[in-house]
Give the backbone structure.
Amino acid sequence: MATALKPGARFKSAVCETQVMVVKAPAGEHDLRCGGAEMIAPMATGSGEPDPAFASETLIGKRYVNADESLELLCTKGGKGSLSLGSTPLEVKQAKQLPSSD
């Protein structure tokens, strides 16, 4: 099921401890997942285990983005599952190089 993602919205994984906040999102409905399962509202309850194909740990404080960086999530609580948009894994956003101060 696809969900409209809006900056400031919070979601949690249904299958692990991971929690995220949307920093930036493209318009429309998107299939946000963690551990291979659809992410749920912060107050909802989930159950089960992460899919082994999507179990590469999410780290607190890191920002996760899709390939074109139109979606950006901030991990507010780490967990065992990895974040994905549908079946496409999200990557940790790399820090931008600052210009040298020569």
Remarks:
- The two ends are 52 Å apart (CA to CA).
- The chain has a mean pLDDT of 92.
- DSSP finds no helices and eleven strands in the chain.
- The first strand starts at residue 3 and ends at 4.
